[in-house]
Structure formats: structure tokens, C-alpha cells
Design brief:
By secondary structure, this protein is of the alpha/beta class. Helices cover 41% and strands 11% of the residues. The chain is built from ten helices and six strands, in the order E-H-H-H-H-H-E-H-E-H-E-H-E-H-E-H. It has helices at residues 18-31, 39-42, 48-55, 61-74, 83-92, 105-114, 139-147, 162-170, 184-187, 203-207; strands at 5-8, 97-100, 124-126, 155-159, 174-178, 193-195. Strands 3-2-1-4-5-6 form a six-stranded parallel sheet, covered by helices on one side. Strand 4 (155-159), helix 8 (162-170) and strand 5 form a beta-alpha-beta unit. The longest helix is centred in the first third of the chain and has 14 residues, at 18-31. The two termini are 19 Å apart. The mean pLDDT is 94.
Length: 211
């Protein structure tokens, strides 16, 4: 029997923080205008290094990094309803899991401090410091699959952003989209299945998703 793995994006999938990040990047854009329409939405799913290198001159990178860290130090990270129950069921069934996020270690440590038992549900955590390519490149998901000992094609990916969904598909995984931050119409044909939340979702429903 093939070994199934489950790979999760973080923001907008496990924790309800995307709205807070949208507001943060809208404020940054006011301080350092990029001239890019819908900037805060376009960058969703991108690693910080890619955002900085693509949209901002190098002489202001450190200031933005400092602002990000200050913001993430003070932010609260509400976990979506149904998430812990689903993670517990995966752990009980011995199904390996990983987080694949563009977040850095500073943010992850703040999250672990807020929820000391959260880390125990994951066999691996891939952050922005583990990759050289940002989503929609599949690198993060390919690394995660390897670290939990699974073939990417035998993994399920849970994502909410368009770039993240593209990354999961490019990795060859079965992709399940969360409609937490984008309307269903925008996510159609971007994933193998769509769900509103993890409330009432279970392993059986996950395994029933086909390509």
C-alpha cells in the first residue's frame, strides 16, 4: 500500500491571518509605493525574499524586514475551526504531515510560543529559509514530501492562494483548495477539490478526492 502524506500551507489554511497580512502590506505600500495595482493581493503566497527582490529597492529591505518581524511579534494567530481535530486524526492514523510556508523562523517561533502543542502534529516544517524558489514553484512541496518519506504524487496538498495551488499541482500532488480567502469562482480548475473549512472534514473525505 502506498504511503500517503499530507502537506499544508499555513496562512489561510491552518491559521486565519491572511486579512491581517493584507492590511500590513497595504500599509507598507503606502510607505513605500510600488505602483502595482492590488499589490497586497498579488504577493500572497510569495516568500518575503521574493517580495523584497521583486518590488522594493535593496536600501529599504532591512526596514521592511524589521517591520515584518515587529508585526509578527505582536500578531495573534487564530487557528481555524476543525484544524486541530483533523490534525489529531492524521496523527492517530500515522499519516505523516508537513507545513510548507513562506513564513520565516521568527514567525514560526512566535506561533509555537502561542500554541506550544501545535508543532507536535507535523513531521516536518518547511519555511522560507528552506527554499530558494518561492511558490508557485513546487520546490517547497517537493522538499516536504521527501522529508516525510513520501512520493509527491501520493501526497495531498491543502492551499488557499492561487500561487500555492499552482505549486501543489506542479509538485504532482492531489490538491485541495480552501475557499477562506478567494471565491469559489476564482479557484475553479485550480485544484482537484474545494472545501470551505476543516469543520466536518475527515480522512475518508480526503482520500475520496481524485485527480
Amino acid at each position: 500500500m502506498k504511503k500517503v502524506g499530507v502537506l499544508f500551507d499555513l496562512d489561510g489554511v491552518l491559521i486565519d491571518s491572511e486579512g491581517l497580512y493584507t492590511k500590513f502590506w497595504e500599509d507598507i505600500e503606502k510607505i513605500y509605493p510600488t505602483g502595482v495595482a492590488d499589490f497586497a493581493l498579488i504577493i500572497k503566497g510569495n516568500a518575503l525574499f521574493k517580495i523584497l527582490d521583486t518590488y522594493f529597492p535593496k536600501d529599504i529591505h532591512q526596514d521592511i524586514i524589521n517591520r515584518v518581524h515587529q508585526f509578527e511579534h505582536n500578531i495573534t494567530y487564530p487557528i481555524y475551526d476543525g484544524v486541530i481535530e483533523f490534525l489529531k486524526s492524521l496523527k492517530e492514523q500515522g499519516i505523516p504531515t508537513a507545513i510548507v510556508t513562506s513564513s520565516d523562523d521568527v514567525k514560526m517561533n512566535a506561533l509555537y510560543n502561542a500554541y506550544p502543542h501545535f508543532r507536535q502534529y507535523f513531521n516536518a516544517v518547511i519555511t522560507g529559509s528552506d527554499v530558494t524558489e518561492s511558490k508557485p514553484h513546487p520546490q517547497g512541496y517537493l522538499i516536504a514530501a521527501e522529508r516525510i518519506g513520501c512520493n509527491p504524487k501520493d501526497c495531498f496538498v491543502f492551499e488557499d492562494s492561487l500561487q500555492g495551488l499552482d505549486a501543489g499541482m506542479a509538485a504532482g500532488a492531489t490538491v485541495i483548495g480552501l475557499t477562506t480567502n478567494n471565491p469559489v469562482e476564482k479557484l475553479k480548475n485550480k485544484a482537484h477539490a474545494l472545501i470551505d473549512s476543516f469543520v466536518g472534514f475527515n480522512i475518508e473525505k480526503m482520500l475520496a478526492v481524485t485527480r
